[in-house]
Prior knowledge:
By secondary structure, the chain is α/β, with parallel strands linked by helices. 52% of the residues lie in helices and 7% in strands.
Amino acid sequence: MKNISWLGAPINNFSQKIKNGLLGHAYLVGVHKGYGGEELTLEIAKAALCKSPSEQGACGFCKACQLLDANTHPDLYLITADGNQIKVDQIRELCQKLTMTSQQGGRRVAVIYHSEQLNQASANALLKTLEEPGKDTLLLLQSDTPSRLMATIKSRCQQVHFEAPSMEEIKTWLSTESGSATDVTWCLPVMGGPLELALALESERYSQLLQFRKDWVQSLSSGHLCASLINVNEKQASDALKVLYLILRQKLIRQVDLDALLRVKVTEFGMKVMDTYHKLSVMPTVNYLALFNGFILEYNKLTR
Length: 304
């Protein structure tokens, strides 16, 4: 695991539950992957399987930890979406495996990443196991957006307590990770969290975001679509729409004397941009040039 400082406290809290014999059977880790949700879930799974966990989590030396490091622990089950959903057959197979005897003589731990991707059938198939998981069975449900989980799933899980890092802590961490003293957190909402932003800094994605910001400002001012916004693929279009939303949000924050009616119009326009972003994945083939030009025209009409 990367040295993600803000994950230390929840790992410590979970390890204390293990040491004090207070571990429940199902936990919801409602932490976005951009803040280390996947890493946190795996670390507490490792602590639960470790033969001698410390306050910092798994010891890293016992046989269980060696199996975990080699990705060969037979009592750890990892579930990820098949396509854009976690399907009922995946959950039925998992529940069947959890009825079997532990091969290492300890706990059996199931990790379901991005559990908001459970569909109705798979969520219902999981309910019985959440209610009656069997002895020494632990279920960990990680979710980027826990609000999208069925209430019946959430009510059967305890919450892993997590406090999001402060902006200063994020800036310090990013500076250490990237080696750059420049503040890059303006685009944090686009990335979903500091871990994804760190990855963007290692690739060309961050420079692409800067270009989108520059070109949207110029496009909104001139009424004509600028260079980097003319030829984009689906992935870039998602980033471009989120950058446009950030620009509109900044306009509302900085221009405190903005006419009240115009403020409402810009707010509604920003909501429309984000609604389009959320619908992109289910829209048929999209003409991004026409879409972006439409936004430029609409913005110019409402700000005249």
